[in-house]
Amino acid sequence: MKKYRAILVGNGTMGKRHRSRFEAVGVEFSSVVESESELSNAFKDGENFNVANSSVDFAVIASPATTHYKYAKFFLTRKIPVFVEKPLATTAAEARELADLAESQGVTLFVAQSECFNPIFLNFRTHFARELTTATVQQNLNVSLEFRREHKFSERCRDVNVALDLLIHDVGLFLTLFRYENVRVASGEISKDGDQASLVLNAAEENANVQACFYVNRSSNTDVRELSAKIAGALGTATVPVFEYSVSLARYSQNGDVEHVPDSLDNEHKFFLKLLAGACGDWGRRLSTTAADAVGIVSKCL
Q: Is there a contact between 131 and 243 (Cβ–Cβ < 8 Å)?
């Protein structure tokens, strides 16, 4: 593999995680910065990277969510590939601007919505897609999905509300199952303290009516990351179950604590490096567009 050099913006919890995993596969970090002034000082005349008189191959942005837009734009305008933590931006307009900028510049923009690379979800998606494809030969098919994500209070990610913090994960998963163009927001609500949110999405597929219900809570007394799906077809006047499945997207220890699923982060890093090497280009562009679409959807319930 090519020896890549990178710059890290934001050295908090996620910044350290991303850095350690990239370094484990041979990526060298030329610089770690924590502010705009530090970033500006790392560039000579605002254009040329000036760390050890060498260029960087990509930037990792793991700063607070409210800064993602300005940092991502800084690098994309200089045609430097970007690996940025979710959310891509905090408004639909800014998220779309970044996705369009990456496309016009011909540069990779990758949003680290790690659940999309969770092996548990990938297995679920494979089975769900197969069952849905088989079932759509029937008429009047009803598909329902429920996403539930809760965890106890944490000081992390408090610069944005729960929709941009947690709901963005599950909306991103939904958009890997159904095309954004077919999705409509039925309802959305967020609590006054910004720690709980609910959302209902409808999607029209061939011979199928799809409804997805989302609930997130980041000030809960429990930790849950569940996804369930039901597919039912009509047989005369009766409703016939076709597929019913529920899965936890997290693993738990015997005392109930969440156990990290390292494959999720490792998988997204491997995919990003493939994008840099020129592989999977169409998938890469689709993922950046999906990340912008997800911001657009969750912003409707803010």
A: yes
Residues in the chain, overall count: 302
Helix axes 281-298 and 92-105, enclosed angle (nearest 10): 160
Q: What is the pTM of this model?
A: 0.90
Q: What is the pLDDT along the chain (302 residues), one digit of tens a residue?
A: 688 999 999 999 999 999 999 999 999 998 899 988 888 777 765 455 544 445 789 999 999 999 999 999 999 999 999 999 999 999 999 999 999 999 999 999 999 998 999 999 999 999 998 888 877 666 678 899 999 999 988 877 788 999 999 999 999 999 999 999 999 999 999 999 999 999 999 998 777 789 999 999 999 998 899 999 998 876 554 466 778 999 999 877 777 666 666 688 999 999 999 999 988 878 888 889 999 999 999 988 76
